[in-house]
């Protein structure tokens, strides 16, 4: 009143269970006071604040849980490798030393055990790769994707020649990204394209890129066995496989690792496919990644 300043404040009125915005306007003849019911807005603000606090709490708990799971996977995988190497080594020694007195069935059992140990080792290595996704050790760099693809296909040269496979590339860009994760993504998708081919039909892969305002979209198209739409989500889940090991070797980790890498960098991965008519895997990466 004495300062003749307008006053605004909000207050809760328990008898009516309501919030009011109160405005007082002093004048020479007295004081005008206005009350406005703002209960709905205040309730929404309180609920939003509680929701944000819950989300922050869940994010912290999830971060801790993920860190613990990754550490467990790393330690478990690392500690499992040594006894597995010992098993494989002793199986080899048994086969070598006692080969003259082991019958055909015994040798078959040794082969089964050795093959199982090798597949177990590959699962461990893939689990290690999965646990390390997100722990970036590379620096951002300009990557020539065409050169990267040539380096990857060189690793599969023998397989490509034996299968009479064809790997073609469109115009591929320079990208600002992390070298090791990007290499792993392309390597996994190219490996898949070569592995899941139709018998009697040489594999053919086409790798292309499409430029968008803020990201690149890469596509890897093959002429393989294809995938039914009901399995589109399942193939990206860790250890999920659509075929048994006698048909197609593998651990069911490759696409899970690929998805985790892409999504960890803010991108997306999806596929278009029809059973018996090949598949096209698409993924996106941002143009301007930040370290």
Descriptive report:
The protein is α+β, with helices and mostly antiparallel strands and 291 residues long. The chain has three domains: 7-37, no CATH class; 42-132; 140-286, Heat Shock Protein 90. Helix content is 46%, strand content 23%. It has helices spanning 39-97, 104-132, 145-155, 157-163, 179-195, 254-264, and strands spanning 7-13, 18-27, 30-37, 140-144, 166-169, 174-178, 204-211, 215-222, 269-273, 279-286. It has a five-stranded mixed beta sheet with strand order 5-7-8-10-9. Strand 7 (204-211) and strand 8 (215-222) form a beta hairpin. Helix 1 packs antiparallel against helix 2 (104-132), helix 3 (145-155) packs across helix 5 and helix 5 packs antiparallel against helix 6. The longest helix is centred in the first third of the chain and has 59 residues, at 39-97. The protein is elongated and about 115 Å long. 19% of the residues are buried. The model has no long low-confidence stretch (mean pLDDT 80).
């Amino acid at each position: 009143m004495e300062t003749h300043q307008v006053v605004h404040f909000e207050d809760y009125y328990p008898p009516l269970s309501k919030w009011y915005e109160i405005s007082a306007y002093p004048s020479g003849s007295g004081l005008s006071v206005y009350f406005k019911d703002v209960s709905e807005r205040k309730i929404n603000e309180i609920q939003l604040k509680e929701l944000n606090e819950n989300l922050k709490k869940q994010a912290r708990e999830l971060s801790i849980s993920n860190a613990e799971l990754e550490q467990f996977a790393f330690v478990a995988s690392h500690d499992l490798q040594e006894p597995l190497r010992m098993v494989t080594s002793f199986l080899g020694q048994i086969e070598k030393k006692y080969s003259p007195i082991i019958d055909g069935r015994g040798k078959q059992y040794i082969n089964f055990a050795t093959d199982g140990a090798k597949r177990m080792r590959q699962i461990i290595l893939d689990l290690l790769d999965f646990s390390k996704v997100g722990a970036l050790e590379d620096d951002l760099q300009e990557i020539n994707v065409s050169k990267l693809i040539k380096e990857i296909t060189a690793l599969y040269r023998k397989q490509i020649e034996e299968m009479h496979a064809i790997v073609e590339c469109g115009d591929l860009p320079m990208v600002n990204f992390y070298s090791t994760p990007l290499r792993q993504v392309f390597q996994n998708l190219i490996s898949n394209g070569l592995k899941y081919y139709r018998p009697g039909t040489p594999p053919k892969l086409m790798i292309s890129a499409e430029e968008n305002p803020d990201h690149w979209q890469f596509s890897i198209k093959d002429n393989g066995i294809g995938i039914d739409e009901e399995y589109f989500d399942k193939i990206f889940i860790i250890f999920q496989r659509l075929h048994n090991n006698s048909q197609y070797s593998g651990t069911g980790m490759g696409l899970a690792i690929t998805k985790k890498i892409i999504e960890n960098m803010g991108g997306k991965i999806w596929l278009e496919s029809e059973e018996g008519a090949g598949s096209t895997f698409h993924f996106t990466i941002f143009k301007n990644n930040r370290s």
